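Anyone up for a design puzzle?
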């Protein structure tokens, strides 16, 4: 019997993928491994994992259905592929801001998630810049954005592959993949303070620019046009109102009055933040914020360079 050229297999496989993709684009059809998604917010950073959920279904998984190490899957363009960490299309993980995974930096964005499963219990988590490929059949190492090493854990049987987030704190969460009796955990950290401040800066710059554009002409008539007039609308004709003090009034520095005012505002409204070139440890250019950073925390008062 005459054997087909390996190139023919590649062409047939690509044709099958194209037909499948075309049909899915036109028809919404069920799949054997159901699609799922999970999300988690840390600070203001959102994390998403979109994946498909294969079942154990009595099969031997590790070292069999999912081979150890990198393998030639016999299809696609990759000669050595990791596991696609799911089924069907790429497993996709997304971060809305920069994060650290197992202590290593990873930029905001979408990534194809792959795993190299090791026989000794270790695993390599791979974040690929290519998140649109079909599984790992077209995996290309040069497209890796990050690789991290983790240790797997033994868990009670999980029939359907499941992703979830555990150990959620104010600035971190651990993503875990559970399937059969194995768990793959990887810790994700967020610099919440700097992410929030960067977002505030961006929105303030955008909002302030729009506000200035909207109000410039209106306020020019209301204020600017009155600066140099000599009629009855002149600001020079506004009568002063002198302060009145009793003989027992306590004399304090003006900055102390301002500081007590800011202290009251911070204590009664947790949504209030202040920032500026001198608003950090220096306490403001006239010390009107003295000691408030230590009292209310860095995220409520921040120096902006």
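Challenge accepted. My sequence:
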């Amino acid at each position: 019997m005459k054997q087909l050229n390996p190139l023919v297999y590649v062409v047939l496989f690509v044709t099958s993928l194209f037909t499948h993709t075309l049909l899915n684009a036109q028809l919404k059809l069920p799949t054997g491994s159901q699609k799922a998604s999970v999300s988690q917010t840390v600070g203001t950073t959102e994390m998403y994992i979109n994946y498909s959920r294969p079942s154990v279904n009595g099969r031997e998984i590790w070292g069999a259905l999912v081979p150890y190490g990198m393998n030639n899957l016999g299809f696609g363009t990759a000669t050595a592929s990791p596991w696609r960490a799911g089924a069907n299309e790429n497993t996709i993980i997304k971060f809305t801001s920069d994060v650290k995974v197992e202590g290593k930096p990873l930029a905001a964005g979408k990534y194809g998630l792959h795993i190299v499963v090791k026989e000794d219990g270790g695993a390599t988590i791979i974040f690929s810049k290519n998140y649109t490929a079909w599984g790992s059949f077209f995996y290309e190492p040069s497209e890796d954005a990050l690789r991290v090493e983790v240790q797997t854990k033994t868990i009670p049987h999980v029939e359907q592959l499941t992703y979830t987030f555990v150990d959620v704190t104010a600035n971190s969460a651990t993503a875990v993949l559970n399937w059969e009796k194995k768990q793959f955990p990887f810790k994700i950290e967020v610099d919440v303070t700097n992410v929030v401040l960067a977002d505030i800066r961006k929105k303030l710059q955008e909002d302030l620019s729009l506000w200035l554009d909207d109000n410039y002409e209106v306020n020019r008539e209301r204020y600017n046009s009155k600066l140099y007039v000599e009629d009855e609308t002149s600001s020079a004709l506004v009568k002063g109102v002198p302060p009145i003090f009793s003989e027992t009034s306590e004399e304090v520095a003006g900055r102390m009055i301002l500081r007590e005012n800011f202290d009251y505002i911070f204590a009664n409204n947790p949504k209030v933040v202040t920032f500026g070139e001198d608003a950090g440890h220096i306490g403001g250019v006239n010390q009107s914020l003295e000691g408030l950073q230590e009292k209310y925390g860095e995220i409520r008062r921040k120096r902006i360079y």
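A detail worth pointing out: Residues 217 and 257 are 35 Å apart (CA to CA).
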